[in-house]
Amino acid sequence: MRWTLDYGLSSYPERQNMQTLPLSGIRVADFGWMGVGPYATQMLALLGAEVIRLESSRVMDPFRQQRIKPQALGFGQVNFHKLSASVDFSRPEGVELVKKLVSISDVVASNFRPGTLERRGLGYNELLKVRPDLIMIMLSNVGGTVDNKLPGFAMFFAAFGGVSELTRYPGDVPSVLRSSMDLTAGANGAFATLCALYHRRKTGRGQYIDISASEAATRLVGDSIMDYVLNKRIRGGLGNQDWLMSPHNCYPCKGDDEWISIAVGSDEEWSIFCRASEGQNWVENPEFATSYLRKLNEQRLDNLIAGWTASQDKHVLAKRLQEAGVAAYPSTKGSELASDRNLWERKLFLSLDKPKPDGEPVVMRAPWRIDNTPEPSWRHEPSVGENNDYVFGELLGLGKAQREKLIQEGIISC
Amino acid sequence: MIGEGKTLQGVRVIEYGQMVAAPFCSLCLADAGADVLKVEPPGYGDPARRYGPFKDDIPDQEGSGLFLYLNTHKKGLTLDISKPRGREILDMLLDHCDVFVHDLKPSIAESMGITSDGFRESHPALVVTSITPFGNTGELRDYRMYDLNVFHGGGEGYITPPGKSDMTKPPIKAAWFVSDYYSGIDAASASVAALMQRELTGNGTSVDISKVESVLGINRLDVATPFFKDGAFETRQTLAWPPGMGGVYKCRDGYAISFYHLDRVWQDMIKAMGNPAWAREERFSSRQKRIENGDEIHDRFEGWFSEQTKAGLYQLGYEQGAPVAIVASTEDLFDLRHLKEREFFVNVTHPRVGSYPYPSLPAKFSGSVNTVGRPAPALGQHNVEVYHKQLGIAVDELRHLAWERVI
Predict the structure, then answer these.
(1) Nearest Cβ partner of A325 from B144, B226, B265?
(2) A272-312, pLDDT tens digit by residue?
């Protein structure tokens, strides 16, 4: 490890106290579709990058379509503050347009099946010819170098990745996990892109990054993998339980499908919990005096606590337990976000510049707050080709007549 | 161009973190090539050292699997930052680093002056990343929350597991520490973003990560969108697939998940099943019809799956594109062809525990080599190297600091 005192501050521009978004000046050509790719570039857009969705008018992003359950496809949640240019890159003229845009972009992102862009002449080596320091981020199910036909939906990443196996009631079937596994892959994509941007800033060199969504899921269970490598012990699911702490579960509360999670991490916390639940029959009960005994008698203890919580309001109980110093919190439903004072105070939700008439006026911010960052006016998610004039006209310098010709030929759609 | 240095070459990180979230943040940075110094309280160190799993279940503070996984590639120091001299030494360390990752309770960080203007002025180029249950502001900021509480508080619990059956069963959390890992990767991204901002402004900054918001954020599609859209929101019931669209099936040696919501995907599935005559009947020819006759499909699939093995099902997916994924156990992960081909597991040799394969970063960088395979540090392993050789603290003083349990 080198311990130099030189931060290289002398090389910084003389703009002390300037407020700027971390990625201002960075442009991303975004082939992302569905959940994984768009979430990665959503994070970059939230950091100030100009993200331009490149959409083929022939293959629509399924998230734009109302298919299985319209309300579940939050296109806007992963595509706001981006621009959209529509170009048919199955045709050579379209490929040329894309290359022109790439030549003035810093990052290309894609979660198409590996090989898709290469077949169109848009592989990394081709793109390097127009942009020598390009960063390309390729997200796929199990990695771009693996010649496979494995499926590429979020629940499959959780299954291959080892998360489903470990998510279940004891002795029950494994669980399906949903979009969180797509977005976990996207979050890893954002991290890798940021690292590559930093690296380029320091060295002037771009690179190609190949990310596996199922490996991103596997990272979430690394600790369980260690049990296998150390002891050849195959872990299953514990439901909400922990292998040391007890009580450690979700308990029913008053109302329909209302729950509170309570976790007692040590004997010291147990005595706090007992003070906060005075009069209950686990207090001063020698069966539950130590974490070892509580774990041995966990089922009985869980039943007793469930009986106690069942008649109580989850918010009131959580507040009371937290005030005493016990880790307890209500199980949050999506419907409760609107009234979550803490989250609104923390401005987790963003209003977009043009609420669409059919809803989605509000989206969720990046999962971080960075000081000294200006708050831009957040743009709505773009319709297909909404920014064609800006992208093809202003950025690529095509005159109106040229653009109209390309529209007539179907290279640009409108 | 392969192999030209590390991605985050030269980035110096100090981590003061416990268990999973903050250590995972700095692990991601270390995996990408940053130099990470982990600072632990003297005596017992990070509680992850006591959590296990241990070899043969015998407790050993140098042998906890949780700790070993989350702290590879790091160097280790001990320091009691609540003591005045400990705090001075922390400031000396911070003078030599780019990112300080910590998980101090907000009120404690405040009382230590870590959030003050004075601290910022004395470390103008430092990025300070804090990871706490609810972030550094708001009335809940000092709440005590374990991974369990965060997962349920962040809304993913309420939709896990999706299923139509028994709604009197509680919602459950995913795996063991999933929500902590979510916030760890977010914190790592934000830390690098702050370094990018420093490139533009010359100034360090503070990054505030709320674990609950990380869980909400990564579930934005299932938890947040529906509410804002039309008031309908997902539950464990609404997120369940109707029979005829997919399910979790028992096979001979475990489980598999199959999902065949679209005609194209359904065709891939029945082709992999050998195109049985029943599946080609008119009653199953569209999604709507398959949902109407879903119970029959479910029964047929249960029968077919019960004769399959995980290895065979994996092969059908790998070679034919069948929309089926085996539910991999921690053992299966070591047999999966795609993980082998990518060399996802990297051997790390620990002087006391031995040589074992560890999961690595899910990203391969063409322009840099990152994995160094350094094992997790023993408690205080690098005290002399850093405190004496690098910071210039006299060995004589180190003896006193050890006696006073400052290090």
Answers:
(1) B144
(2) 999 999 889 899 999 999 999 999 999 999 999 999 999 99
Residues of B in contact with A211 (CB under 8 A): 362-364
For residue A405, which amino acid is it? K
Q: Which amino acid is at A321?
A: L
Interface contact flag, B192 A195, Cβ < 8 Å: yes
> For chain A, what's the residue count?
414
- For residues B301-324, give the mean pLDDT: 95
C-alpha R_g of chain A: 26
Strands, E, within A288-400: which ranges? 327-330, 349-351, 362-364, 369-370
Among B176, B266, B310, B355, most A C-beta atoms within 10 A, so best to mutate, is B176
Q: Give every CB contact of residue A330 below 8 A, 6+ residues apart in sequence.
A: A253, A258, A259, A260, A261, A314, A315, A318, B152, B153
Q: What is the DSSP string of B282-336?
A: GGGSSHHHHHHTHHHHHHHHHHHHTT--HHHHHHHHHHH--SEEE---TTGGGT-
String of DSSP letters for B349-385: EETTTEEEEEE--SEEETT------PPPPPTTTTHII
Amino acid at site A32? G
* Token duo for residue A259: 């729950």
Label residue A110 exposed, middle or buried (CB < 10 Å: 0-12, 13-18, 19+): buried
* pLDDT tens readout for residues B69-81: 999 999 999 999 9
CB atoms within 10 A of CB B198: 23
- Answer for the pair B183, B214: CB distance below 8 angstroms, yes or no: yes
CB pairs under 8 A between A and B: 551
pLDDT in tens, A313-354: 999 999 999 999 999 999 999 888 888 899 989 999 888 887
Q: b/e for A223-256, b at 16 or more Cβ within 10 A? A: bbbbbbbbbeeebebbbbbbeebbbbbbbbbeee
Q: Is A113 helix (H, G, I), strand (E, B) or coil?
A: coil
| Residues pairing with A329 in the sheet | A261
What distance in Å separates the CA atoms of residue A173 and residue A237, rounded to the nearest whole number?
A: 9
- Report the sign of the C-alpha dihedral through residues B119, B121, B124, B130, in that order: positive
Q: What is the DSSP string of B115-182?
A: TSHHHHHHSTT-EEEEEESS-SSSTTTT----HHHHHHHTTTGGG-S--SS-TTSPP--STTTHHHHH
**Model pLDDT, residue B4:** 59
What values do phi and psi take at B10, rounded to 5?
85, -5
| Range 103-162 of A in CB contact (< 8 A) with B | 142-143, 145-146, 148-151, 153, 155-156, 159-162
DSSP string, A172-210: SPPPP--HHHHHHHHHHHHHHHHHHHHHHHHHS---EEE
pLDDT by residue (tens digit) across A28-45? 999 999 999 999 999 999
Q: Which two three-digit tokens encode residue B165?
A: 């059956």
Three-state SS for A138?
strand
What pTM value is reported for the model? 0.95
Residue type, B129: T
Q: If 0-12 CB within 10 Å is exposed, 13-18 middle and 19+ buried, where does residue B59 land?
A: exposed
User: What percent of chain A clears pLDDT 90, i.e. is strictly above it?
Assistant: 74
Report the pLDDT value the prediction gives residue B230, as an integer from 0 to 100.
53
Do A1 and A356 touch, CB atoms closer than 8 A? Answer: no
**Cross-strand partners of A349:** A364
**Measuring CA to CA, which residue among A263, A251, A329 is closest to residue B212?**
A329
Nearest of B304, B322, B313 to residue B259 by alpha carbon? B322
- Best mutation site among A26, A71, A155, A191 for testing chain B: the one with the most B CBs within 10 Å? A191
Token pair of A40, please?
């990665």
Instruction: Render the burial of B239-265: b for 16+ CB within 10 Å, e for the rest.
Output: bbbbbbbbbbbebeebbbbbbbbeeeb
Residue type, A54: L
Taking the C-alpha atoms of residue B76 and residue B48, their distance in angstroms, rounded to an integer, is: 14
